[in-house]
Amino acid sequence: GILSLLYGRPPKMVFPSQTWRYLRYTINGADLSFSSRIDLMMTIILHLATSPVSGLCWLLDEIIYGKQLNSLSIIKPLFVLSAYRSASTEMARALAKDTTRFVAPNAIMCAFPYLWLWKLVTWIVGDDNAGMSLDEMNGYLNKNFTKESL
Q1: Start-end of H helices in 29-127
Q2: Which listed site, 54, 55, 114, 120, has its alpha carbon 20 to 30 Å from 4?
Q3: What's the pTM?
């Protein structure tokens, strides 16, 4: 809509034509079992259904933080790619000690890369220096589950 005209099309948005094409490939895929086809079709439909929410979240980031993010300059970034069992965790721990320059998202931040969301989470839950401890957070999040289900 109008926001897309002002801020551009958000990434991760799915065109309905893409969805139909992927669904046709899935339905006609001779190499897939029936249950695999159903699973894949449900995943494709879920992605189509959640795409507008992802797009709105992205646009909110652009509206709220776009100017600030665009004004940042990243000088000499370091990307570390490593093989399994190659001491990459130890290297990451050593790099993380430099808290003024080291930035690395965790897995859930990669899944939900929206700055406004993480500011909201920090406001509700607290950050590393205030709020709940990790044990308190786990207890709060798991309070409705039985011990057997955990």
Answers
A1: 34-71, 88-96, 107-111, 115-125
A2: 120
A3: 0.63
